[in-house]
């Protein structure tokens, strides 16, 4: 009989529910608690363990579970909440949430995610920190537009200078990490050969989308959330929409796609063709993002650099 587990995680603790059992166990979210949880799960040999992303509080537990060879899937909390509503479960407590997650795992069985090695985890943390600094820098630039006091302007410029310095340090750390990891170095070089894909986007893709090059074009589009979804009912034919998937990754790929639309001949021609067919600019940009991801996926799958005929 298959065994499915659900874990609801908070800052200081987490609750474990097994789909076939009525009891819920609580553990501290620290080294001892994670070790105790492993001792409980290992003998059960669960077919799948599902948890929600909780701003990083799940990372240590996830890594330890995967290192022990246990299958783990981190699923968007909105999907699980909508599943609970569909089951008529409107109440919400930590124990109930763990049981709902376990039920979600048993019914929908989302695919387990591959374990990240230490190098990839380090790269992921560096790329995430760089994105945080970019957001902070943008906020400071926006504040500068409305600053009229000289002391305030000096403060903003000092903060911006510090941010730029820290970004330079992070960029060097990222380059060093890539150089120390042959697989990441090869992948980033292949991705950077594509017009419109720079060093920053390449490092983002190899850390946030490790499945690139391992899935087919439909799977990679659905994973990022750029696959069109039908909205038809009876004789009604609704407008196709995109969504779901890795929302933050999709948002961070928007600007690189605009660059590719201008400077990549294949993506530019594809984008213009869609506009000529009457598609709106936003629809054409999202379609161009899907086209770009498809090309990158084929390149890594075939282990080759950019060739216009790849498209």
Helix and strand arrangement:
Layout: E1 4-9, E2 13-18, E3 24-28, H1 31-44, E4 48-51, H2 59-67, E5 72-74, H3 77-86, H4 94-108, H5 118-145, H6 150-180, H7 182-192, H8 199-208, H9 217-224, E6 232-233, E7 236-237, H10 247-252, H11 254-263, H12 265-276, H13 281-302
Parallel strand pairs: 1-4, 4-5
Antiparallel strand pairs: 1-2, 2-3, 6-7
Any idea what the radius of gyration is? Answer: 22 Å
What distance separates the N and C termini? 46 Å
Give the integer mean of the pLDDT values: 87
Q: Sketch the topology as an H/E string, one letter per element.
A: EEEHEHEHHHHHHHEEHHHH
Describe this structure in words.
- Helix content is 60%, strand content 9%.
- With 311 residues, the chain is of the alpha/beta class.
- The chain has three domains: 4-108, ATPase, nucleotide binding domain (Nucleotidyltransferase, domain 5, 2-Layer Sandwich); 118-180; 202-310, no CATH class.
- The strands form two sheets. The protein has a five-stranded mixed beta sheet. A two-stranded antiparallel ribbon has the order 6-7.
- Strand 4, helix 2 and strand 5 (72-74) form a beta-alpha-beta unit.
- The protein starts with a strand and ends in a 9-residue tail after the last helix.
- The model has no long low-confidence stretch (mean pLDDT 87).
């Amino acid at each position: 009989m298959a065994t499915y587990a659900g874990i609801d995680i908070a800052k200081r603790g987490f609750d474990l529910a097994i789909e076939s059992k009525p009891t819920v166990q609580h553990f501290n979210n620290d080294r001892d608690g994670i070790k105790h949880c492993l001792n409980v799960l290992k003998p059960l040999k669960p077919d799948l363990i599902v948890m929600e992303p909780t701003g990083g509080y799940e990372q240590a537990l996830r890594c330890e579970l995967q290192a022990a060879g246990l299958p783990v899937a981190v699923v968007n909390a909105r999907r699980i909440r909508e599943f609970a509503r569909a089951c008529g479960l409107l109440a919400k407590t930590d124990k109930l949430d763990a049981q709902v997650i376990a039920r979600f795992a048993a019914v929908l069985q989302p695919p387990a995610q591959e374990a990240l090695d230490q190098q990839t985890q380090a790269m992921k943390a560096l790329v995430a920190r760089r994105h945080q600094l970019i957001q902070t820098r943008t906020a400071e630039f926006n504040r500068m537009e409305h600053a009229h006091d000289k002391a305030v302007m000096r403060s903003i410029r000092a903060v911006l200078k510090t941010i730029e310095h820290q970004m330079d340090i992070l960029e060097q750390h990222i380059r060093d990490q890539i150089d120390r990891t042959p697989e990441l170095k090869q992948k980033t070089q292949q991705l950077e050969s594509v017009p419109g894909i720079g060093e920053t986007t390449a490092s983002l893709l190899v850390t946030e989308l490790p499945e690139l090059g391992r899935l087919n074009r439909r799977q990679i589009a659905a994973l990022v959330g750029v696959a069109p979804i039908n909205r038809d009912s009876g004789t009604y034919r609704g407008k196709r929409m995109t969504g779901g998937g890795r929302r933050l990754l999709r948002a961070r790929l928007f600007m690189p796609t605009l660059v590719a639309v201008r400077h990549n001949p294949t993506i530019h021609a594809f984008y213009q063709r869609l506009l000529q067919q009457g598609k709106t600019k936003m629809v054409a940009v999202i379609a161009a993002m899907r086209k770009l991801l498809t090309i990158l996926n084929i390149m890594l799958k075939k282990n080759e650099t950019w060739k216009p005929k790849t498209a």
